[in-house]
Amino acid sequence: MKDLTDRLGTLFSLGDITEKRDDLAFVSVAPDLLRAVITHLRDVEGFTHLVLLTAVDWIEGGQFQLTYLVHNRTRARDIGLRVFIDREEATMAGIHDLWPTAATYQRELKEMFGIDFPGSPRIDEEFILEGWTDIPPYRRDFDTKKYAEETYFHRPGRETFDPATHMKDKLYPGEAS
Amino acid sequence: MEAFVKPGEKNRLKERPERPVKQELQPRVVKTPDGQEITVEPLKDYYCEAPPRVHPPAYAKIVEDLFNWARAESLWILGFGTGCGAIEMRPLMTPRFDAYRYGIQWRPTPRQANLFVISGYLSVKTLKRAIRSYEQMQNPKYVVGLGSCTINGGMYWDSYNTIKRLDRYLPVDLYITGCMPRPEALLAGFLELKKIIKAGKGEGANRYAENFDWYKANQKQVIHDWDMPDYSW
Amino acid sequence: MTVQDVLSPFTAWKNLFRDPVTVRDPLTERPGAARYRGFHKNDVAECIGCGTCEAICQNAAIDMVPVDGIETKEGDSGLRPQIDYGRCCWCALCVDVCMTGSLTMSNEYTWIDSDPDAFRFVPGVDHKSWDDAELGYHRPDGHRLTPPERIVMREMDPERRIGNFEEIVDGYSVEEARAEAERCVACGLCVATCPAHMSIPDYIATIREGDYEAGLKLLYETNPFSQVCGRVCTHKCETVCAVHHEGDPIAIRWLKRHITDQVDRDRYVDIIGRPAGETGHKVAVVGAGPAGLTAAFDLARMGHAVTVFEARKHAGGMTRYGIPEYRLPYDALDADVDVIRAMGVDIKCDTPIGDKVTMTGLEKDFDTVLVAIGLHLGRSTRIPGSDHPKVAKAVDLLRAITDGETIDVPKTAVVIGGGNVAMDIARSLARLQKQIHGEVGMTVTALEDFSHFLADPEEVKESFEEGIEIFDARGPREVLVDEVGNVTGLKTWKVVSIFDDKGRFAPTYDEGDERIHVGTMVIEAIGQAADVALLGEALTEKLEWNRGRITVDADGRTSEPWLWAAGDCVNGPDVVHAVADGHRVAASMDAVLKAKELS
Amino acid sequence: MPEGRGYQRLKPLTNLQDILDVATEFERTARDFYKDLVPKVSKNIRYLVEELAEEEQEHFDLFADLARRDDLGDLVRHEIERPASDRKFSDCVHLPDLGENPDDQAVLQYALMREHAAMEQYTALAERTPPGPVHDLFLFLANEETKHKNELEAIYYEIVHSGGV
Amino acid sequence: MALFELDRSQYPEAKADGSLDIDLASGKYLKLWQGPQHPGITGNMSVELTVCGDEVVEGRTHVGYLHRGFEKLMERRTFIQCFPIVCRICVPEPDFNEYCYAAAVEELAGLEVPERAHWIRTLILEMGRINSYMMYLGGQAGSFGMGVIGQWATYVRDLMLDRFEEMTGARIYHMFILPGGVRDGLPEGFAVRMEETLREVERALKDINDVMYCNAVFKKRTVGVGVITPEMIEPYGVTGPNARAAGVAKDVRKDQPYLVYPELDFEPVTGSVSDIYTRADVRRRDVHVSIDLIRQILQKMPKDGPVMTRLPNVLNWKIPEGETYIRGECSRGEYGYYLVTDGSGYPRRVNVRGPSYTHAMALLEKLIVNANISDVAGLMVSLHTYPPEIER
């Protein structure tokens, strides 16, 4: 992979590069450079298969990490482009014109993370959730357990005991510690 | 069974922003073949809006027992696999487990089915379709819940999209536990259901009619995209 | 479109002549496979209610519930897993992680009910049809989700450690400690067994996170002698550790020590926190052993003015003068004592109770007094010849070694006794013999046989490694003295059996098997007593006694309202019991002092 | 030691009742000795002396009601089928002088010595009398003293071999 | 070559985002819903068809009926707790999730899996592949009205499930491939019973071939319908039998061999034109390849040795920060797990890339245009899609 990343390094200013295996590497790219790099990879370097486009929510850093994973079948190699965008107004240029299947990924990211891809076909159409009223569920600030308890009401009548406190109540209730 | 609490029970209806009605459900003016202009109201014309009634037992016990015997011996399951448990119903259709010898078979439409098997977890989107399918089935109708997901949420107990207790949304006659229950357990469950029906205790449909408001309130509390009348058969 | 395409589908008709594959009665003919993961079974006698199955279950399907008929005792929380089959997914992770292997699965799979609340049961307690099914999933042998082996603690090898008094145990490095702390399943069964009820799982968790200062704060909430207990505690907690059932228990004692080693000592006081404001009450403590100083530490932190009177030159009591340096280095003990001093406790050394300071004096000058004098008098067997000057008591000899006095080290010596004190004195003298004479000549004889030895097994093992001969089941008969007046050895008889079936002392000797153990010096380490003479005649008369020990209630109060007693001199064989006594006394004193304020 | 004063008094007696009377008298002297030792001893070990006094009292009562029993002979014979073995644990413990302020160990040693002496005295008497009721009675008395001594040895072990870990 | 080409001039042009501006009131078009329940597809997926006469003008796939939010739930579960939930993502072939998740965790945590565990994992994956194809055959025949094939296929699948139950302790969700290896070795006499089951599969396949593949009606309705041209493969990310039927020998087991595939000799099966018939035929021949693979595995497998590596204490298991992508060839195409860890005890993000993600959405919506209503069901099933892979 070293040769590929070096070649890319000469053409574009890349962020940090992690070489996971000899057939997989991840490269950080600036958001506006993404389209250029990915088009170059697809047309020149032979990475013609878009494997996946997903988002990772780094809530501590206030950032979404968009990962574009493309695969080159002849050389049997993958390269993942990492793009960091702001968490609050998360928008990114779509790549639905390069791969028609990217439109589906972008629809899912819009519904699940709230990342907007202006111009992507049917971006605002309901994809998975129907009549969803809360914030996009895959964001880390959405607590699914609390939502489930408030909305669906688990079956009552269950209670658990912690062994240590139970033994304290039973064997030495008066003691301080 | 959990005590039935009248609709006042704390299930706050989420405040729902007004949703645009789907294109095919909006009223539209259509020219009939003979040139007249009529307006089609899908939400009214396609449904029959009448709340369900409690069906009293037949006039004589002997006759009711006969009916129950007939109903029990012909459990026609609606072919709607709502969850992952449906895959274990397929072997029942094959000669190896041969559910047909017990009078059990699968029917494509709710009109011809009298047993609705909720086969595992039920996401909100499928719940809406399940409710419509259930309401389109003819009385007497029974519901069987498969797997731990219908009892107390199962593996998806903390998921934001699956219901946790089936008995809050549909009247359930029988539960078969397992993740997912095997074909043999399903057969044992159906035979158990036969006993319940023959004993005249298969009153799920009537319970649904009696506590109709409570069920509707619960259903509307989780289904936000409610673009159909309350009862659509 | 060929003719074959039209005709070949009709080949299906050949199935008319095949016999059907239908299962005649699917409800009974199809039991689950031998490894089938069916409904749960639990051997409630084997289960210790540690809650590890509840911790690993990702469906929160398991609750630990009390069960009547199973009472809580040491090592068993009395709780049993209740499984909610409205949540379970039969993944059997609980069976794989079960600490005692009591939770298994049957191959039963049919459970049908109309009532949704019925699918909750405590396996082994609520009896089900599958309780005695033979087939079903069991944890495959060798398949473990928690590492059973303990991280090996590096120790000095015998050849190197025999020549000096340096500490044998090196202590864990950060990586080793973290790896050992990883093994803890945080079930909490150990907390009840520890006499001081230290919050063990919490401070082990701080080691995992590497937050040693939080760990130290946790330690000092319950044990101001953490450095000492980290080295010499009898670690009862490790005997009830859940991991102990199918592997080595967690090295709790060494992990406690690891925390104290990682935080440098001048940070201790500001981590533990300053004592509260002055309350104006004055408390006197007799004896600066673990019990006395723990009570002093607690009371000082509550703001009371505490003065400790110690007869010896240094504080520490039995932990300094009874335990040799290779087991507990004095700088570790001094570190603990310095922390207690920093809390404002005034420790007056070299002030024995008796002439200058008397008990009646203390009663007048202080609001409350605590007697924590330990067991510093050695017992003698008083067999013929045992009053010879060359026959010494182990406690006195250990005190001399600790004070650094020069003692004439015999070439060969015999120790009577089988407890830890006997081992300590034997191994101390062995080291001195090695330093002075170049080779070890120590023999230990004990009345009890190895199975009844009071000493820790590792102590006995290490003594053997250091070249000390140990003879068990030898009854001491006579100290042999030659005509010139020097001790030449000890005559012992073989003890055939030492206790009767009811466990009472009923020795039977084999007089034929008589043996002479050569030694120019005999040391008696058979037992210790408290030096109660210092209480003075008047007080001894007023106090209530119970078989030679001061009678105290649960809080350590004696029959005298102003006097408390704690530590070895009252009960509890070891350091951590003394610390626990100290806490109880401090809490009780504080309550009494507060009550006195109101009235 | 075995041919001491007591031995001489008992040797000539042939009547069971008289022997028993003398034995009970010995027990009474022992009890009285302990009774007046109680105040003299420091309070923390006073419990021990009281226990010894009670032990002797029990023996006194035992022998006293035995003396009144008429089926003395076969009762004694029945007892000595199971002789208590003398464990010889304390034989090597030499006699201390009680002195001014004895500690618990010294008191126990003294008690053990008395029991040992009594046991040897009765066994010697038993050996010197021809087999018969008198012989059995002496054996019985020796047996009682041995059991008593074993009991004391157990208490000695618990007190001396204790404390410390 | 498509059987009939309709001129599309009479239909309205596509809007900017590709969907057509349909005026229902004009009475020329009709909106039909295909699904969400259809015997052919395992799982619920519906296609919203706009039809003119009986020719489809536009199709939109709707999913979300089986959405449980796996990736959200896995962020709340420790690594060992994620193990039982991953296999629930895909019912016909659950083992692939277990393998991909286990391999991803092993790579990031640096676990060394023993040799024998690799062999057992490959065995399970191939058995799972046969099961998945059997389910497909039942569905494909069902969508064209031939119910009997579904009976035979499900029966044979049931025999295979007995083998699974015997080896792993469960029928469908095996929860057997644990991060670090597999739970246990093979039971005694497994190879013999496996051989019998394989012969049953071969016998059933032969029957199905006679009745379905050499069937004039089936041929007439499937040849030349729903053609995937080789040029469509890269833009639409088509993988698996759908792509191989178009002549592109795209098989991860050959391109990037994993587990013990390098030691097994087999040839990926390819066809000429990727229409419904060829795709079905490629899948049938793939089953034969899998049967042969299983025989090779059982014969070459090391008889004893450890099956599980030593795991750290799973209750406090923290994996250092990192991200990785593990892929494999499942029955429907390329299956992959993208796992991101942040050094805590919980995965930061898990993304499951199932082959149906592209097949059922972009590809189906493209192929379905100007298909006949009666072929829509067959077309959907022929792509062998499984909806929960799309919405997870």
Automatic annotation (TrEMBL), chain A:
Gene3D superfamilies: NADH:ubiquinone oxidoreductase, 30kDa subunit. Residues 27-147 form the NADH:ubiquinone oxidoreductase 30kDa subunit domain. InterPro entries: NADH_quin_OxRdtase_su_C/D-like, NADH_UbQ_OxRdtase_30kDa_su. Residues 158-177 are annotated as: Disordered. GO terms for molecular function: NADH dehydrogenase (ubiquinone) activity. It comes from the Bacteria. It holds the Pfam family Complex1_30kDa. Belongs to the complex I 30 kDa subunit family. This is NADH-quinone oxidoreductase subunit C.
From TrEMBL, chain B:
InterPro entries: NADH_UbQ_OxRdtase-like_20kDa, NADH_UQ_OxRdtase_20Kd_su. Signal peptide: none annotated. Residues 7-22 have a biased composition (Basic and acidic residues). It holds the Pfam family Oxidored_q6. Residues 1-23 are annotated as: Disordered. Residues 83-192 form the NADH:ubiquinone oxidoreductase-like 20kDa subunit domain. Belongs to the complex I 20 kDa subunit family. Keywords: 4Fe-4S, Cell membrane, Iron, Iron-sulfur, Membrane, Metal-binding, NAD, Quinone, Transport, Ubiquinone. GO terms for biological process: aerobic respiration; electron transport coupled proton transport. It comes from Rhodobium orientis. This is NADH-quinone oxidoreductase subunit B. GO terms for molecular function: 4 iron, 4 sulfur cluster binding; metal ion binding; NADH dehydrogenase (ubiquinone) activity; quinone binding. It comes from the Bacteria. NCBIfam families: nuoB_fam, PRK06411.1. The keyword GTP-binding does not apply. One of its GO terms (cellular component) is respiratory chain complex I.
TrEMBL record, chain C:
Pfam families: Fer4_20, Fer4_7, Pyr_redox_2. Keywords: Iron, Iron-sulfur, Metal-binding. Residues 38-67, 79-108, 175-203 form the 4Fe-4S ferredoxin-type domain. InterPro entries: 4Fe4S_Fe-S-bd, 4Fe4S_Fe_S_CS, DPD_II, FAD/NAD-bd_sf, FAD/NAD-binding_dom, Helical_ferredxn. GO terms for molecular function: iron-sulfur cluster binding; metal ion binding; oxidoreductase activity. The keyword Cytoplasm does not apply. This is Oxidoreductase.
Automatic annotation (TrEMBL), chain E:
Its main location: membrane. SUPFAM superfamilies: HydB/Nqo4-like (SSF56762). It is a peripheral membrane protein. GO terms for molecular function: NAD binding; oxidoreductase activity, acting on NAD(P)H; quinone binding. It is found in: Cell membrane. GO terms for cellular component: plasma membrane. Residues 151-392 form the NADH-quinone oxidoreductase subunit D domain. Signal peptide: none annotated. InterPro entries: NADH_Q_OxRdtase_suD, NADH_UbQ_OxRdtase_49kDa_CS, NDH1_su_D/H, NiFe-Hase_large. Keywords: NAD, Quinone, Translocase, Transport, Ubiquinone. NCBIfam families: PRK06075.1. NDH-1 shuttles electrons from NADH, via FMN and iron-sulfur (Fe-S) centers, to quinones in the respiratory chain. The immediate electron acceptor for the enzyme in this species is believed to be ubiquinone. Couples the redox reaction to proton translocation (for every two electrons transferred, four hydrogen ions are translocated across the cytoplasmic membrane), and thus conserves the redox energy in a proton gradient. Belongs to the complex I 49 kDa subunit family. This is NADH-quinone oxidoreductase subunit D. It comes from Rhodobium orientis. The lineage of its organism: Bacteria, Pseudomonadati, Pseudomonadota, Alphaproteobacteria, Hyphomicrobiales.
